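Task 17 of the worksheet. Students: predict the tertiary structure of the chain below and write it out as C-alpha coordinates. Keep your answer in the requested format; marks are given for formatting as well as content.
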Amino acid sequence: MQRIGMLLVGLSTLGTARLSAQQATGTTLWRVAATTLATPPALAQGAAAALWNPAQTEDSARVQLAFEAIQTPSAIDATGVIATMRLPVGKIGHVGIIYGRVGLSDITQTIDSPDPTGSGVPVYTFAFGTNWSRQLGGTNVGATLAFHETRLDVSTSNRWTLDLGASRSLGGDRVRIAAATHFFSSLTVNDPAQDIYAGLEARLWNGPVSDRGDRVVVRGRYGISFAHGFTADHQLGIGAEFSKTVTFDLLFAKEGGYGAGSWRPVAGLGLAVGKYRVAIARDAGVNDLGSAYRVGVEVRFK
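Model answer:
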Protein backbone atom coordinates (compact mmCIF):
# COMPACT_ATOMS: atom_id res chain seq x y z
CA MET A 1 0.00 0.00 0.00
CA GLN A 2 1.55 3.26 -1.19
CA ARG A 3 0.03 5.20 1.73
CA ILE A 4 1.89 3.11 4.29
CA GLY A 5 5.22 3.48 2.54
CA MET A 6 4.83 7.25 2.44
CA LEU A 7 3.86 7.30 6.12
CA LEU A 8 6.96 5.33 7.11
CA VAL A 9 9.12 7.77 5.19
CA GLY A 10 7.59 10.57 7.23
CA LEU A 11 8.09 8.75 10.52
CA SER A 12 11.71 8.03 9.70
CA THR A 13 12.43 11.76 9.86
CA LEU A 14 11.45 12.20 13.53
CA GLY A 15 13.42 14.96 15.16
CA THR A 16 14.94 16.20 11.90
CA ALA A 17 12.00 16.74 9.53
CA ARG A 18 11.00 20.15 8.38
CA LEU A 19 7.58 21.46 9.31
CA SER A 20 6.15 20.73 5.85
CA ALA A 21 7.24 17.08 6.04
CA GLN A 22 5.45 16.64 9.36
CA GLN A 23 2.28 18.20 7.97
CA ALA A 24 2.48 15.82 5.00
CA THR A 25 2.72 12.88 7.40
CA GLY A 26 -0.45 14.06 9.16
CA THR A 27 -2.31 14.23 5.84
CA THR A 28 -1.01 10.76 4.96
CA LEU A 29 -2.65 9.45 8.13
CA TRP A 30 -5.93 10.85 6.84
CA ARG A 31 -5.33 9.21 3.46
CA VAL A 32 -4.96 5.89 5.28
CA ALA A 33 -8.36 6.53 6.93
CA ALA A 34 -9.84 7.39 3.52
CA THR A 35 -9.11 3.86 2.26
CA THR A 36 -12.45 2.88 3.85
CA LEU A 37 -14.47 5.28 1.66
CA ALA A 38 -16.73 3.30 -0.69
CA THR A 39 -17.32 6.36 -2.90
CA PRO A 40 -14.85 8.89 -4.35
CA PRO A 41 -14.11 11.54 -1.68
CA ALA A 42 -15.53 14.38 -3.79
CA LEU A 43 -18.87 12.51 -4.07
CA ALA A 44 -19.14 11.45 -0.41
CA GLN A 45 -22.45 12.48 1.19
CA GLY A 46 -23.69 12.87 4.75
CA ALA A 47 -22.85 14.94 7.79
CA ALA A 48 -19.50 13.21 8.38
CA ALA A 49 -18.63 13.55 4.69
CA ALA A 50 -18.13 17.29 5.25
CA LEU A 51 -14.56 16.31 6.18
CA TRP A 52 -13.99 15.26 2.54
CA ASN A 53 -16.21 17.75 0.71
CA PRO A 54 -17.61 20.78 2.58
CA ALA A 55 -20.47 21.18 0.06
CA GLN A 56 -22.97 18.75 1.49
CA THR A 57 -26.52 18.47 0.13
CA GLU A 58 -29.00 20.69 1.91
CA ASP A 59 -31.09 18.70 4.40
CA SER A 60 -34.44 19.44 6.02
CA ALA A 61 -33.34 18.05 9.39
CA ARG A 62 -33.26 20.47 12.31
CA VAL A 63 -30.03 18.93 13.60
CA GLN A 64 -27.67 16.32 12.12
CA LEU A 65 -25.23 14.38 14.29
CA ALA A 66 -22.73 11.87 12.91
CA PHE A 67 -20.01 9.65 14.31
CA GLU A 68 -17.63 7.32 12.45
CA ALA A 69 -14.98 4.92 13.75
CA ILE A 70 -12.14 3.60 11.59
CA GLN A 71 -9.87 0.62 12.27
CA THR A 72 -7.04 -0.51 9.98
CA PRO A 73 -5.43 -3.99 10.03
CA SER A 74 -2.99 -4.91 12.80
CA ALA A 75 -0.04 -4.60 10.39
CA ILE A 76 -0.77 -0.84 10.34
CA ASP A 77 -2.72 -0.46 13.60
CA ALA A 78 -4.16 2.95 12.86
CA THR A 79 -7.49 4.04 14.37
CA GLY A 80 -9.59 7.07 13.69
CA VAL A 81 -12.79 8.86 14.63
CA ILE A 82 -14.87 11.54 12.91
CA ALA A 83 -17.63 13.46 14.70
CA THR A 84 -19.77 16.21 13.19
CA MET A 85 -22.82 18.31 13.97
CA ARG A 86 -24.79 20.36 11.40
CA LEU A 87 -27.86 22.57 11.69
CA PRO A 88 -29.67 25.07 9.45
CA VAL A 89 -29.34 28.79 10.21
CA GLY A 90 -31.96 30.61 8.18
CA LYS A 91 -30.79 32.09 4.89
CA ILE A 92 -27.16 31.60 5.87
CA GLY A 93 -27.39 27.90 5.05
CA HIS A 94 -26.09 25.04 7.17
CA VAL A 95 -23.30 25.45 9.70
CA GLY A 96 -21.55 22.80 11.71
CA ILE A 97 -18.60 21.60 13.73
CA ILE A 98 -16.15 18.91 12.60
CA TYR A 99 -13.68 16.92 14.68
CA GLY A 100 -11.48 14.10 13.46
CA ARG A 101 -8.47 12.21 14.77
CA VAL A 102 -6.25 9.46 13.34
CA GLY A 103 -3.36 7.86 15.20
CA LEU A 104 -1.02 4.89 15.25
CA SER A 105 -0.82 2.49 18.20
CA ASP A 106 1.84 0.20 19.65
CA ILE A 107 4.84 2.24 18.51
CA THR A 108 7.54 1.99 21.17
CA GLN A 109 11.05 3.35 21.50
CA THR A 110 14.02 1.11 20.66
CA ILE A 111 17.79 1.61 20.65
CA ASP A 112 19.86 -1.12 19.04
CA SER A 113 17.44 -4.07 19.11
CA PRO A 114 13.78 -4.73 18.26
CA ASP A 115 12.92 -4.90 21.97
CA PRO A 116 11.08 -1.82 23.31
CA THR A 117 12.98 0.30 25.80
CA GLY A 118 10.12 2.01 27.59
CA SER A 119 7.19 4.29 26.85
CA GLY A 120 5.30 4.41 23.59
CA VAL A 121 5.82 6.94 20.83
CA PRO A 122 2.73 9.13 20.23
CA VAL A 123 1.89 9.45 16.54
CA TYR A 124 -1.40 11.15 15.67
CA THR A 125 -3.08 14.00 13.88
CA PHE A 126 -6.36 15.73 14.65
CA ALA A 127 -8.49 18.39 13.00
CA PHE A 128 -11.10 20.63 14.59
CA GLY A 129 -13.04 23.19 12.64
CA THR A 130 -16.28 24.73 11.47
CA ASN A 131 -18.20 24.03 8.28
CA TRP A 132 -20.65 26.06 6.19
CA SER A 133 -22.71 24.99 3.18
CA ARG A 134 -25.53 26.43 1.13
CA GLN A 135 -27.32 25.92 -2.16
CA LEU A 136 -26.74 28.77 -4.60
CA GLY A 137 -28.45 28.67 -7.98
CA GLY A 138 -28.76 24.90 -7.96
CA THR A 139 -25.17 24.33 -6.85
CA ASN A 140 -24.23 23.22 -3.35
CA VAL A 141 -21.20 25.13 -2.15
CA GLY A 142 -19.34 24.89 1.13
CA ALA A 143 -16.25 25.82 3.09
CA THR A 144 -14.43 24.37 6.10
CA LEU A 145 -11.97 26.26 8.29
CA ALA A 146 -9.99 23.88 10.50
CA PHE A 147 -7.08 23.80 12.94
CA HIS A 148 -4.72 20.81 12.68
CA GLU A 149 -2.18 19.38 15.07
CA THR A 150 0.20 16.57 14.12
CA ARG A 151 2.45 14.95 16.69
CA LEU A 152 5.36 12.61 15.94
CA ASP A 153 7.01 11.62 19.21
CA VAL A 154 8.14 14.90 20.83
CA SER A 155 7.72 16.98 17.66
CA THR A 156 4.45 18.84 17.10
CA SER A 157 3.30 21.00 14.19
CA ASN A 158 0.15 23.11 13.90
CA ARG A 159 -1.52 24.74 10.93
CA TRP A 160 -4.83 26.17 9.70
CA THR A 161 -6.52 25.01 6.50
CA LEU A 162 -9.35 26.46 4.42
CA ASP A 163 -11.18 24.05 2.12
CA LEU A 164 -13.76 24.86 -0.53
CA GLY A 165 -16.17 22.46 -2.22
CA ALA A 166 -18.98 22.39 -4.76
CA SER A 167 -21.52 19.83 -5.97
CA ARG A 168 -24.16 20.16 -8.69
CA SER A 169 -26.78 17.82 -10.14
CA LEU A 170 -27.66 18.04 -13.84
CA GLY A 171 -30.83 16.79 -15.51
CA GLY A 172 -32.59 16.16 -12.22
CA ASP A 173 -30.43 13.49 -10.65
CA ARG A 174 -29.10 11.97 -13.87
CA VAL A 175 -25.58 13.40 -13.43
CA ARG A 176 -23.76 14.92 -10.48
CA ILE A 177 -20.36 16.57 -10.54
CA ALA A 178 -18.36 17.56 -7.47
CA ALA A 179 -14.99 18.97 -6.53
CA ALA A 180 -13.24 20.01 -3.30
CA THR A 181 -9.90 20.90 -1.83
CA HIS A 182 -8.67 18.88 1.13
CA PHE A 183 -6.53 20.42 3.89
CA PHE A 184 -5.36 23.31 1.72
CA SER A 185 -2.95 25.69 3.42
CA SER A 186 -0.61 26.75 0.58
CA LEU A 187 -1.20 27.97 -2.97
CA THR A 188 0.66 25.15 -4.66
CA VAL A 189 -0.39 22.11 -6.68
CA ASN A 190 2.40 19.73 -5.61
CA ASP A 191 2.22 19.77 -1.81
CA PRO A 192 1.83 16.26 -0.26
CA ALA A 193 0.10 17.88 2.75
CA GLN A 194 -3.02 18.62 0.68
CA ASP A 195 -5.22 17.25 -2.12
CA ILE A 196 -7.75 18.28 -4.73
CA TYR A 197 -10.72 15.96 -5.24
CA ALA A 198 -13.03 15.73 -8.27
CA GLY A 199 -15.81 13.30 -9.09
CA LEU A 200 -18.51 12.44 -11.61
CA GLU A 201 -21.63 10.39 -10.88
CA ALA A 202 -24.18 9.22 -13.49
CA ARG A 203 -27.50 7.44 -13.06
CA LEU A 204 -27.29 4.18 -15.00
CA TRP A 205 -30.71 2.70 -14.26
CA ASN A 206 -33.88 3.57 -12.36
CA GLY A 207 -36.89 1.31 -12.10
CA PRO A 208 -39.44 -0.55 -9.94
CA VAL A 209 -38.57 -3.87 -8.32
CA SER A 210 -41.87 -4.78 -6.64
CA ASP A 211 -45.62 -4.36 -6.93
CA ARG A 212 -45.54 -2.01 -3.92
CA GLY A 213 -43.70 0.59 -5.94
CA ASP A 214 -40.24 0.00 -4.48
CA ARG A 215 -37.60 1.40 -6.79
CA VAL A 216 -33.91 0.84 -7.31
CA VAL A 217 -31.47 3.47 -8.57
CA VAL A 218 -28.07 2.37 -9.89
CA ARG A 219 -25.29 4.90 -10.31
CA GLY A 220 -21.79 4.75 -11.75
CA ARG A 221 -18.99 6.87 -10.29
CA TYR A 222 -15.51 8.09 -11.14
CA GLY A 223 -13.20 10.12 -8.91
CA ILE A 224 -9.67 11.48 -8.92
CA SER A 225 -7.37 12.92 -6.25
CA PHE A 226 -4.45 14.99 -7.48
CA ALA A 227 -2.23 18.06 -6.94
CA HIS A 228 -0.43 16.39 -4.02
CA GLY A 229 3.09 16.01 -5.39
CA PHE A 230 2.78 12.41 -6.64
CA THR A 231 0.80 10.39 -9.18
CA ALA A 232 -2.96 10.94 -9.06
CA ASP A 233 -5.31 8.51 -7.30
CA HIS A 234 -8.23 7.10 -9.31
CA GLN A 235 -11.53 5.68 -8.05
CA LEU A 236 -14.05 3.77 -10.14
CA GLY A 237 -17.27 2.48 -8.59
CA ILE A 238 -20.94 1.65 -8.71
CA GLY A 239 -23.75 2.14 -6.19
CA ALA A 240 -27.33 0.96 -5.78
CA GLU A 241 -30.10 2.49 -3.65
CA PHE A 242 -33.18 0.43 -2.74
CA SER A 243 -36.28 2.53 -1.97
CA LYS A 244 -34.11 5.15 -0.24
CA THR A 245 -33.64 2.67 2.60
CA VAL A 246 -30.74 0.37 1.74
CA THR A 247 -27.63 1.38 -0.20
CA PHE A 248 -24.77 -0.72 -1.49
CA ASP A 249 -21.55 0.74 -2.87
CA LEU A 250 -18.57 -0.94 -4.51
CA LEU A 251 -15.40 0.99 -5.33
CA PHE A 252 -12.10 0.10 -6.95
CA ALA A 253 -9.33 2.53 -6.03
CA LYS A 254 -5.89 2.87 -7.56
CA GLU A 255 -3.59 4.80 -5.27
CA GLY A 256 -0.89 7.01 -6.68
CA GLY A 257 2.60 7.15 -5.26
CA TYR A 258 6.20 7.06 -6.25
CA GLY A 259 5.88 3.61 -7.82
CA ALA A 260 3.38 1.40 -9.62
CA GLY A 261 0.02 1.16 -7.88
CA SER A 262 -2.63 -1.57 -7.80
CA TRP A 263 -6.43 -1.57 -7.73
CA ARG A 264 -7.98 -2.08 -4.29
CA PRO A 265 -11.68 -2.92 -3.72
CA VAL A 266 -13.86 -1.28 -1.06
CA ALA A 267 -17.47 -2.22 -0.27
CA GLY A 268 -20.02 -0.26 1.73
CA LEU A 269 -23.52 -0.94 3.05
CA GLY A 270 -26.00 1.63 4.38
CA LEU A 271 -29.35 1.32 6.15
CA ALA A 272 -31.89 4.04 6.95
CA VAL A 273 -34.28 3.36 9.85
CA GLY A 274 -36.35 6.36 10.87
CA LYS A 275 -34.05 9.15 11.93
CA TYR A 276 -31.01 6.88 11.97
CA ARG A 277 -28.56 6.17 9.15
CA VAL A 278 -26.12 3.33 9.76
CA ALA A 279 -23.19 2.63 7.43
CA ILE A 280 -20.40 0.07 7.38
CA ALA A 281 -17.53 -0.25 4.92
CA ARG A 282 -14.63 -2.62 4.41
CA ASP A 283 -11.43 -2.18 2.45
CA ALA A 284 -10.14 -5.51 1.12
CA GLY A 285 -6.52 -4.36 1.44
CA VAL A 286 -3.50 -5.20 -0.70
CA ASN A 287 -0.21 -7.06 -0.24
CA ASP A 288 -1.75 -9.30 2.48
CA LEU A 289 -1.96 -6.38 4.93
CA GLY A 290 -5.54 -7.23 5.89
CA SER A 291 -8.75 -5.22 5.81
CA ALA A 292 -9.66 -1.81 7.18
CA TYR A 293 -13.15 -1.12 8.53
CA ARG A 294 -15.38 1.90 9.05
CA VAL A 295 -18.64 2.03 11.03
CA GLY A 296 -20.79 5.14 11.14
CA VAL A 297 -24.07 6.36 12.63
CA GLU A 298 -25.92 9.52 11.62
CA VAL A 299 -28.98 10.87 13.43
CA ARG A 300 -31.33 13.44 11.91
CA PHE A 301 -33.70 15.29 14.22
CA LYS A 302 -36.64 16.79 12.29
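Marker's comment: Confidence is low (pLDDT under 50) at residues 8-17. The chain has one domain: 2-301.
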